Amino acid sequence: MAVTDTKHARSGEESTADRLGVKGWLVLVTLCGATFMTGLDFSVVTVALPEIGRDLDFASTGSLQWVATACLLPTASLLPLFGRVSDLVGRRRLFTAGVTLFAAFSLFAGLATGPAMLIAARAGQGVAAAMIAPTAIALMTTAFPEGPQRTRALGVNGAVLSLGFVIGTLGGGVITSGLNWRWTMLILVIIGALVLVGAVTLLPRTDTRVAARLDIPGAILASIGLFALVYGISTGAEAGWDSVSTLGSLALAVVALAVFLLVEHRHAAPLIPLGLLNKPTVKWSGLIGFITLGMCGGTTVLLSLYMQDVLGYSALATGAGFLAEGFAALIGGVLAARLIGTLGKVGAMATGLVVQGIGTAVMFLLPVDGGLALLLVTSGAMGFGHVLTVVSFITTMTSGLRDDEQGVAGGLSQLPQFLGAIGTAGLAAIVTARTNVLSATTTPQLATLGGLHTAVLTAGIVCLVGSLLAVLFLRRPVAAAG
Question: Which residue, of 22, 49, 111, 127, has the fewest CB within 10 Å?
């Protein structure tokens, strides 16, 4: 009887310790609000692009695409730099500065009078997002101790990011139709102001700082390499994968990143310590993150193509078609902490990839007409598995690290989100190649569908291979760390 009472008492103590508390929830809402804001920004502007082009007289569709690309490039290329800067100057300080700049540039974008002003504002938003993304994760991993609290916080963060995608996809169409595209930017100003209030009043004022100089050569090389890589991938489809600009960008990326690794090996205080980068929990989790984000992001683009070009959906109906994916992802984020507690980090990661892979591969059965139920079920499975994998890989990547390494780890954990464009480009290339082969023997609609079928089957297989990699290369390192 005494043993039973002791077990109940310990269980009660652990349950209490696992709770976030009122202040913990307020801190989490503040940090997730920033995540929601940046996630909303990427999805909401995509829906509004056609009206932006008409209103501001963009010269062509290619130039209009820079409204999205101008934000993506600085975010992807500056993540490692700001991840390290946050350890040097303080995460709270950099996070607050990033939120302030993001709100200011969002206002600038909402008031834009021409293409140049809007693209400049979008580039500013990208720089600010690069300040927010790593610091939000680092603040989260230091505010909540490793274990159930941190896992729950990261799960809520993943759910909120998915919610931002759903609201951005649907809300962008509603706002653009009912109000004006400028409100897609002005709403970000309001959210930014609320997050800023929370950051100033709730986030701990004590910041861990590393007494070291900033690795300037490493920062320059990493930024150039990532910028060239993302630029080459983002513009390759339009410019041509064999064009001088695309091949030149990718070659520059390879050279800059190779030299970066050499510089980091010799630098006393490297931008990204190679010892951290070589940790199995960091490098293999990063690869899993790249797989899940690349395949989910690429498949989402393909589903948009399927709904509009094959099924003939309107933009607003296409946004509604993503509801199952978004809400299943939301559920996945809410349940992630419980599933990780039951299955373990690697088990949850592998399970998430299996669910994502099966859901994606079964899209091979999507028909040329109808099939709404199959679309909702498969995209929902993909969204659920994807978010479970994301929460698991970030939890694994940021576990077992010193406090002064959390800023760099936060930047590394966000990098696969932007390098996932490689997956999108790869799946798009498969669609194009297969469609071209089939177009000689069938209708354009069926040829496109055949290309999509080949691509989603490929994406599903890649996810299943990723699940196997997680079990093979992460099970022992995570068990040893535990």
Answer: 22
**For residues 143 and 95, is the Cβ–Cβ distance under 8 A?**
no
DSSP state of 420: T
Spell out the residues 6+ positions from residue 80 whose beta carbon is closer than 8 angstroms to its own: 219, 222, 223, 226, 271, 272, 408, 411, 412, 415
> Coil, strand or helix: which one is 253?
helix
- Find, among 78, 72, 77, 81, the residue nearest to 46 by Cα: 72
pTM of the model: 0.83
pLDDT, tens digit, for every residue of 184-193?
A: 888 899 999 9
From residue 355, alpha-carbon distances to 84, 160, 334 in Å are 35, 20, 16
User: Which residues have CB under 8 Å from 283's CB, separation 6+?
Assistant: 277
Greatest distance between any 2 Cα atoms in the chain: 79
Is residue 442 left, alpha or beta, with left meaning phi > 0 and alpha meaning psi from -120 to 50? beta
pLDDT in tens, 129-180: 999 988 888 888 888 877 788 888 888 887 777 777 667 766 666 666 667 7
Which residue in 111, 164, 92, 89 sits closest to 333, CA to CA?
A: 164
